[in-house]
Amino acid sequence: MKRCCLLLAVINFALGVCAQNPHVIQAEWFIGPDPGEGLGTAMQVADGAWDEAMEAVIATLPPQAPGSTTIGVRVKGANGYWSSAFTSVIHTGAALTARSVNVQQGEYFWDTDPGEGAGTPLLAFDGDFNDALEQAMASDNSITTGAHRLYVRVRGADTGWSALFTQVVQVNTPLSARDIHVQAGEFFFDSDPGEGNATALLAFDGDWNAAVETGMASVPSPAVGDHLLYIRMRSADGQWSNEYKTVLHVGPQLTPRPVMVQAAEYFWGTDPGEGAGLPMLAFDGDFNSAIEQADIASNGATLGANVLGVRVLGADGGWSTTFSSIVHVGPALALRDVRIQFGEYFYDVDPGAGNGTALTAFNGAWDEALEQAIANAPSPAQGDHLLYVRVQGSDGQWSNEYKTVVHVSAPVTARPVAVISGEYYWDTDPGAGSGIPLSALDGDFDEVLEVAVQNASEELPAGPHLLGVRVLGSDGGWSAPFLQAVHVTAPVVQNLPVTLSAFLQGPLTSATTMSDALRTNNLIPLTEPFTALGYNHVGSGGETINPMVLTILYGQVVDWIFVELRDKDDPSIVLQTRCGLIKNNGTIVGTNGASPISFNALAGDYHLCVKHRNHLGVMTHDPLALSASGAALDLRVPSTPTYGTNARATTFGRRALWSGDATGNGIIKYTGGGNDRDPILVTVGSTTPNNVVPGVYSTRDVNMNGQVKYTGGGNDRDPILLNVGSTTPNNIRPAQLP
Length: 738
What we know:
It is a single chain. The protein is mostly beta strands. It has seven domains: 6-92, Immunoglobulin-like; 103-170; 182-250; 261-329; 340-408; 419-481, no CATH class; 491-738, no CATH class. It is built from three helices and 51 strands. Strands 37, 38, 39, 40, 41, 42, 43, 44 and 45 form a nine-stranded mixed β-sheet that branches. Strands 34-33-32-35-36 form a five-stranded antiparallel β-sheet, with no helix packed on it. It has a four-stranded antiparallel β-sheet with strand order 3-2-6-7, with no helix packed on it. The longest helix is centred in the last third of the chain and has 7 residues, at 678-684.
């Protein structure tokens, strides 16, 4: 196959001296001997018109035999004379045959060469080894700590392996993060009161739990003058840092002075005196700021140069000095009607102004100075044509023609091509038609281009994977797989805090408060009680608290509480548990008395269940979305849906966990075997029911006042009867949990 030459000639043509109209009107070319002026092959002007002294022309040469050839070009000027021929020797070479150069495969190994083809395969980053240059990736966790030599080689399209590319790599041991975070902060002025005795700082985000914290404090300023401000922090190991200090100057309190504009006026020429000018209007409708924008009119100004004076009245009743400026007032401008009222176009030959094919205004009306137009007409014959467009102005005059070269090609016959099915697979190709089906996003595979979605989900191990996708065409044939390398990252377990609130019916004394009698009587144990009661812990158990947590500084703690994280699809599955504390306002916190309960899990949807040692547990009706940024659940309000029927009691218009499960078996029962009433009687003495056992931390203490009582006011038996139904004592009330 011989190569064809495409000639693009830019001709600089200079006509004779003193030519009236120097421009090119024609050009021709020839190969070999000169056929004579006007007898060469005509050239086409690139912009469609011979009307310039310098023109760009184009020509297509027929295929030439390999070797040297002389080509000649000449142009004809507006004076009718041909120029001399411009000649050039061109060389036509034989056609080049491209050699297939691409990478077919890649592999790597550490330290010792296992032999060509026996290394660990590399994955092409774009999913397919098919180029001369490829990006590849690999994931290898098997290499030991120390210095190693990494080798890489590739196999070409000719099946030959390349030389080895090598690199020394140092593999280090994994780094273990050290727990570094701020636990407390304090500050003082001038004199150090001793570590832990200064004024406490509050963490800006509500919790001291990070290595870098923003603290804040609101305290009266020290006396006027210079002072030293000191700040120090306590870390997770209980040690106080050195003091960070800075000099502060406390000045006397500033009293702001009212500064604002309350009126403004202007005048032209001679000053009429303060308050006698033309009033100005505030741009925002009211003069009430130190800086205002105002409007003025040109009333009173004459044509020519005028002096404009402006002044404002302050809040103190005094007028400002006059701000003056020279303003030139000209005559009013008259707008000229400039718009298009008609448009037309034609090909090659001008039929005369007004006789072309009409254009249609894109917006339906010719009424603007700039218009967009459209036309719907048959195309001219195949080949190159000149397209002309002109418009008629509102004055009835036609514009010059706007022209361009257009090439009309033969019509293209569309072939029915549509996707009728799609599938995908991971890593290993199961064969055409055996992959996992894809669904068309619009519900039907019937287009050349389709957006598809997957109907299934797969759990892939972390690391690199190969995704293959192919489609079935309307001709019944499957496409080649489209391959893409995908790196799957292992899901990250995060700390998921939950702001929880609930009420216990037993100690609830109002719509907002529970009794903290167990705390005030020093009966709350420092170790969680649920292990001894037989609760199943998942990732918790044995938690203890600092005695300081039970002081008034941390709020009024009512008792220990048990929180479960459950599966969103099968809520009978308990994934994690936490032991926490419930305060008298219903807030549930961790064992430090301040932070919310949190779980170490993947962010997602979960059920939450709250339990107490002698109250019925309650669980969310719908899964709750948990994330590292936190979530909230308030079980005190009726609007929070819960699992089951009547899962919570209504007391003081609020929702609370049912009290009376003295046996801790998840059922409130007043009569019959295993009831919750008899253990109370046994505790006070079966033969002495009027006894009271004080100072106890017991599940028999239904109202949680620190004593067990069977008869008389405030006894622990009556709440059980009321919760099963005072007129139906044989009823039972089970916990609404799966």
